[in-house]
Write a structure and sequence with these properties.
It contains seven helices and two strands, in the order ααααααββα. Helix 3 (55-126) packs antiparallel against helix 4 (134-147), helix 3 (55-126) crosses helix 5 and helix 3 packs antiparallel against helix 7 (241-285). Strand 1 and strand 2 (229-230) form a beta hairpin. It has a two-stranded antiparallel sheet. It has 289 residues and is mostly helical.
C-alpha cells in the first residue's frame, strides 16, 4: 500500500515540470523560443584582434593618395596654363588691332608731312622775294595759312601695352621673342614722340613769328577774301619785315629739316616695321583677320 502511494507520488512529481512549462509557455510559441535559442547558439562574438596590415598595403594606400594629389595638381596647373595662354592670345589680338590703328595714323601723318614740306619749300623760295610787291604778299599769306597753321603729330594707340604694364600681365607673354618685339615697338614709339616734340616746338615758334609779321584777320574780311579767293585789294604790309623776316626764314629752314627727318627717319620706318610686326604676330599666334 505504501509502495503504491510512493510510486504514484513520484510519477506525479516527475510529470509536474512538463505541466508547469506548458502552463507558462502558451501553445504555438515554443517553436519561436527554440529558434531563438538556436540563433543564439550560432552567434559569434566579434573578433577584437584585427589582422595587422602588411607594408605593401600601406604602400599601395600611400601611392593612391599621392597619385590623386599629383593628378589634381597637374590638372589645376593645366587649367591655369590653358587660361593664361588664352589670355595671352587675347592680349596679342588686342595689340594687333592697336598697331593697325597706328598704321592708319602713320599713313595720315606721312601724307600731311609731305604736303607740309612742299609748302615749306615754296615759302623758302618766296621769302627772298620783295614783300613790298602785293602779289608776293598775297602768295606769302596764302602759303602761311595753307601750310603753317595746321600740324599733324603721330600718337600711338597704346591701350594694350599700357594694360600689360599696369596689370603686370606682361608675364603672360610666354615667348621671349614676342616680348622683345613688343618692347622694341614701345621704345620706337617713344623715339617718334621725342622727334615730334622738336617738330611741335618749331611749329609753335614759327606760328608765333607769323603772327608778329602778318594780320590774319584779313581772311575774315570780305574786302580782301571773297568766296575763298583774294580780291584785288592790296594786303597790308608785313610788320617790321626787314627785322623779323630773316629770323623767320632761318626758323622755317630748320623746321623743314625737322619735318623731313620726322617723316623719313621715323614715320616711314615705323610704318614698315608695324606692318611686319602685324604679320609676325598673326603667324606666331595663328590669328586670322
Amino acid at each position: 500500500m505504501t509502495n503504491n502511494i510512493d510510486e504514484d507520488l513520484l510519477a506525479d512529481q516527475g510529470n509536474q515540470p512538463e505541466k508547469q512549462l506548458e502552463e507558462i509557455i502558451p501553445e504555438g510559441e515554443t517553436h519561436t523560443i527554440s529558434q531563438e535559442t538556436k540563433n543564439m547558439e550560432v552567434h559569434h562574438h566579434p573578433d577584437l584582434h584585427h589582422r595587422q596590415k602588411k607594408w605593401k598595403e600601406y604602400f599601395l594606400e600611400f601611392l593612391m593618395i599621392f597619385l590623386a594629389v599629383t593628378l589634381g595638381f597637374i590638372a589645376e596647373n593645366l587649367r591655369e596654363h590653358i587660361t593664361e595662354r588664352a589670355k595671352e592670345k587675347q592680349y596679342i589680338a588686342g595689340f594687333i588691332r592697336n598697331v593697325k590703328d597706328d598704321t592708319a595714323t602713320l599713313h595720315h601723318v606721312i601724307e600731311f608731312d609731305k604736303h607740309q614740306i612742299k609748302g615749306i619749300d615754296s615759302m623758302l623760295k618766296l621769302l627772298h622775294a620783295n614783300m613790298a610787291i602785293d602779289s608776293n604778299r598775297k602768295s606769302f599769306y596764302y602759303i602761311a595759312i595753307e601750310y603753317f597753321y595746321n600740324s599733324s603729330l603721330f600718337k600711338s594707340n597704346d591701350a594694350t601695352l599700357q594694360q600689360l604694364k599696369s596689370t603686370g600681365d606682361y608675364r603672360l607673354i610666354e615667348k621671349d621673342h614676342v616680348v622683345d618685339s613688343l618692347t622694341k615697338y614701345d621704345a620706337d614709339i617713344h623715339s617718334i614722340y621725342n622727334q615730334g616734340d622738336y617738330y611741335e616746338v618749331y611749329f609753335k615758334d614759327i606760328l608765333s613769328r607769323l603772327d608778329e609779321l602778318t594780320d590774319m584777320t584779313v581772311f575774315m574780311d570780305t574786302s580782301f577774301i571773297k568766296n575763298g579767293k583774294m580780291t584785288t585789294k592790296p594786303l597790308p604790309l608785313l610788320r617790321d619785315a626787314n627785322g623779323k623776316l630773316p629770323t623767320l626764314i632761318n626758323k622755317i629752314f630748320d623746321f623743314r629739316i625737322i619735318t623731313s627727318s620726322y617723316e623719313e627717319n621715323f614715320l616711314k620706318p615705323q610704318l614698315e616695321d608695324s606692318k611686319k610686326l602685324i604679320s609676325f604676330l598673326k603667324e606666331e599666334y595663328d590669328i586670322k583677320d
